[in-house]
Amino acid sequence: MNSSKLKDVDELLDDAKLRKTAPRVQILKALLDVAVPLTQEQIAEKIGKNSPDKVTIYRSLENFVEAGLVHKAYLQERVWHYELSHHCSSIQCHPHFTCTNCGATRCLWGKSPALVEGLEKGYVIHRQQVRLEGLCPKCS
Amino acid sequence: MNSSKLKDVDELLDDAKLRKTAPRVQILKALLDVAVPLTQEQIAEKIGKNSPDKVTIYRSLENFVEAGLVHKAYLQERVWHYELSHHCSSIQCHPHFTCTNCGATRCLWGKSPALVEGLEKGYVIHRQQVRLEGLCPKCS
DNA sequence: ATATTACTTGCAACTCAGTTGCATTTAGGT
DNA sequence: ACCTAAATGCAACTGAGTTGCAAGTAATAT
Fold first, then answer.
1. Residue B137: how many CB atoms within 10 A of its CB?
2. What is the pTM of this model?
3. Does residue B81 share a domain with residue B61?
4. For position B88, what pLDDT does the model report?
5. A→B interface, C-beta within 8 Å
6. What's the 3-state SS for chain B?
7. How many angstroms separate the CA of A67 from the C1' of C30?
8. Scanning every residue of chain B, which has its alpha carbon at the shortest distance from the alpha carbon of A118?
9. Which chain A residue's Cα is nearest to B112?
10. What is the mean pLDDT of residues A63-76?
């Protein structure tokens, strides 16, 4: 926790017009700390023993998603991962690469493929998500 | 159920070196019948009242995935969807478009974006998945 | 054709990420 | 300081998918 980060968190909450509560600050700081998407469980672990209840974490994350602060992605089986959406275009987040051997995930900033084209008239694309599976340098 | 389809199913199972059992034939026929990915529940519904147990459906689908006959995709929240993989490249299935209003899903055959490039040395891509959300012509 | 055996199936009970209901607490305006 | 809508925490729930195990069956060997 450093002061510049705290300021960021305050600004994020202000801009999103969300009340500044302890759990929300804790959760946002946890997300600011890392460069990869986290699950509810990982966030709780990162915050430590005075972490908010898991229900509160889920609800806060949902608030953040509604406010556009956070993106939600499926990376591994049956678990949501959350990450800050700052620096993502609204229509397309960066791709995620997950190693099928060690499970590590990497964000591929600036490597988004072009948006799918050629859809019939009437289709409106709100979001494109790209997920990659394979082996990371350690495991290949 | 028509004979050409039955023949297809037989061939698929033979080629995959899987035993020809009633549940597997029923499930493969259900998948051959449609052009969109189905959930376990939708498959059971499609087969009707003499559908195999849901455990059997899951296990058969898993067998098919291992054999490369079927692809698995997350389209909606927390539910796996399964579809035949015939005519998919092994590294990249076609993208899927899901309407956030009516929930309908469409397969975008032949509209795959280029594979993500520029990964650091050592990364090996086994699979790229693309998911689109937005509005379909009926809902836009 | 029958026996053998490894593979499959079905049931019941379980797991676990995520959700819901509700009583209690708290942020932020008055 | 007070008030009220919004946020929190606990306990109980939901539902997709899984596991263990006994019973059934396809494909092979006899």
1. 12
2. 0.90
3. yes
4. 84
5. 74, 78, 95, 97, 100, 108, 111-138, 140
6. CCHHHHHHHHHHHHHCCCCCCHHHHHHHHHHHHCCCCECHHHHHHHHCCCCCCHHHHHHHHHHHHHHCCEEEEEEECCEEEEEECCCCCCCECCCEEEECCCCCEEECCCCCCCCCCCCCCCCEEEEEEEEEEEECCCCC
7. 27
8. B111
9. A116
10. 91
Task: Give the domain-ending residue among A46, A67, A87.
Answer: A87
Domain of A132 in residue numbering reads as 89-140
- Does one domain contain both A82 and A96? no
The Cα–Cα gap between A15 and A53 comes to: 25
Quick check: A127 pLDDT over 80?
yes
What is the domain-level CATH number for residue B129? 3.30.1490
**Contact between chains at A124 and B134 (C-beta distance less than 8 A):** yes
Number of domains in chain A: 2
Q: How confident is the model at residue B2 (pLDDT cuts 50, 70, 90)?
A: very low
Please tell me which residue, A7 or B62, carries the higher pLDDT value: B62
Within 7 Å of a protein beta carbon, the nucleotides of strand D are 6-11, 16-20, 25-27
